[in-house]
Request: fold
Amino acid sequence: MASAKRITRKDIRQPDWFQRTSDLLLNVIEEHRVKAIAAAVALIVILLVIWGWQVFKARQDDQAADEFTLAMSLYQEQKYPEAIAAFTKVEAYRWSRYSALAHLYETNSYMALNDLDKAIPAGQRFIAATKPESLFRQIGLVTLADAEERKGLCKQAVERYAEAANIQAALKDRALLGKARCAAQNGDNKTALDAYKEYAKNQPGAPAPAQIAELEAKVGAAPAEKK
Reply:
């Protein structure tokens, strides 16, 4: 009969499976606890940053609204130099929705003063602050094109009017007429005729622009391009 294995003091001191497993589990829990705390702290920091940003934007919007109301009062009273200074203050609130609108009314104010050299860059700043294919962008393009046309920059104006005409919004027909008018001034009769025809198609009840027959005669009389 085999004798039982003798258990020594050394064997008793050795950690058994349960103890080793427990220690490993505790280490894993401790490691994950540290990570969980770190993640929670990071989340709190992110939430505080978002909250602070929202508070900052709301405060900017409130302050910009007050400045914009004052600027619009001056604009409506046709006090354009004072209005321009007031709109410039609104533009400083870059994160406010009123900032972009201030550029538009600054453009209109300069145009009312016939200061086209300052109206054009102000209009460009407004367009840069708008979203593609939006009504605001179309308004900005037509306004800027109007300023460029008045300054005799019809080549640039045609491009602005053309982009505005491609936006399906309220000023599409006005943009088409501007495109046709400036293209005719540039001697591009074909582009002018196409724009007038598109305008007439969009306004079936309105009289066709008188320029259509004249431009058709010019386009028809033009020599054909050599192939």
About this structure: The first helix runs from residue 9 to 13.
